[in-house]
Amino acid sequence: MVERDYSKYIEVPAGSDLLNRIAATAAEQERLMNELNDLARLVKEKEEELRVVSDGTLPDLMDQAGLKEFVTLSGTKIKIQELVTASCPAPSTRDPELMKRRSRIFKWLDDNGYGKLISRELKVEFDRSQSEQALALEKELRDQKYSVQRQYAVHPQTFNKFARDMLADGKELPEDFHIHRRNVAKIVKD
User: Fold this and answer.
1) How far apart are CA 65 and CA 184, in angstroms?
2) Which of 14, 142, 160, 165 is least enclosed by beta carbons within 10 angstroms?
């Protein structure tokens, strides 16, 4: 290993407190990083506390009182809204049961005229020597025996909106959609 002389790069003028300032600034950076980590942990804790109140305690109390809306004396308006979510297994899933469920969801969407919700992607892998072939059409690739993978997906927010709209229209959805309903309290200041 070759030793290098770095002394000319760390020369500190006589009487300078530069190294002390560097050490102090590094300590300040470390303090700030620790504070930020503490705040991030606190934010997560507060988000969970808020979720318990807005998704549980307050909707339960409003339900016991038979109320969907309430205005406090201070003018705070509380509205209970039903949130509906649906879930479709991710394309990356390798669990055979989830893969079957995913296939049934896509078949149902296609069979019932909602296939446009499904984004379809073709994935073709080439090495560097095949860059010209990468520009060919899917048919040509299949004819040349390249491996072509198809990937279908439905964006989660699109899927949730679709499920909400269908349920709002009184339509039934298959069990595979895993519909979840929950009431959430919304605070609105006038």
Assistant:
1) 15
2) 14
